[in-house]
Design brief:
Keywords: Exonuclease, Hydrolase, Nuclease. This protein is of the alpha/beta class. 37% of the residues lie in helices and 19% in strands. The model has no long low-confidence stretch (mean pLDDT 93).
């Protein structure tokens, strides 16, 4: 069925997140206690709450978004382009700019959002951070009261599962086995917090995020048995 979807109607996306504060000691006492309780199962006796804090970026309650990258196809006749852009800087501005894009250009019934593990991570994370930042959730992200077939989300991880719900495949592994150029540059997700807080190199994070967004689109093309994007078709805006 995915072969029947008009590529022009899909917004591909990826987000990068970091701990909300640079280090555990920057949290107030109550948040430190809540972090301790929240991560008790994951840490067990192997790490103290402070030692585990570098992973806070995976929880919307303790992390924040530093970049959202999006990409979309523009296909006219036999000319195909994939336009990529990113929102970064202050989290509230990132979320507002992303909202404006959704509400102004991808708000129709035929429009879909697509990411890798986006249903489990990116989309819930964005929605929760919007609530925390007192920003209205756009209809495309808001699942309340919707039936499963009304949810306008595609997920390349879910498509690859083929109903095998216990199965997880990373985007890096999926691109490798499908013969797609590796999306990863010189960092991985576990290093984003260090690059953000210590190196203060947001451009490096944006490049990393955009490569993932392009990789998701490439996986989707491969699942449809279509030609992969070449560099000349990718436009950074």
């Amino acid at each position: 069925m995915i072969e029947k979807i008009n590529l022009n109607n899909i917004l591909f996306l990826d987000i990068e997140t970091v701990p909300e504060e640079e280090n555990f000691n920057s949290l107030d006492a109550e948040m430190q206690s809540l972090w301790d309780h929240k991560t008790q199962y994951q840490r067990k006796d192997d790490f103290t709450p402070e030692e585990f804090y570098d992973r806070a970026g995976i929880w919307a309650e303790f992390g924040k978004i530093v970049c959202i990258s999006v990409g979309y196809f523009t296909i006219k006749g036999d000319i195909r382009n994939f336009r990529v852009t990113s929102f970064f800087g202050d989290e509230k501005k990132i979320l507002r700019d992303f909202n404006n894009l959704i509400n102004n250009h991808f708000n129709q019934p035929q429009h879909l959002l697509c990411g890798h593990n986006a249903k489990e991570f990116d989309i819930p994370f964005m929605a929760r951070r919007m609530i925390i930042n007192q920003i209205a959730i756009p209809d495309k992200l808001n699942l309340f009261g919707k039936k499963p077939w009304e949810v306008a989300h595609l997920d390349t991880l879910e498509l690859w599962k083929f109903g095998d719900y216990k199965h997880f495949t990373s985007l890096k592994l999926l691109t490798k086995i499908l013969g797609i150029p590796s999306p990863k540059g010189d960092i991985d997700g576990s290093q984003v917090g260090h690059v953000f807080y210590v190196e203060k190199d947001i451009d490096r994070i944006v490049t990393y995020c955009e490569k993932d967004t392009i990789a998701v689109a490439q996986v989707f093309l491969r699942l449809r048995r279509e030609d992969l994007l070449i560099d000349d078709e990718i436009i950074h805006v």
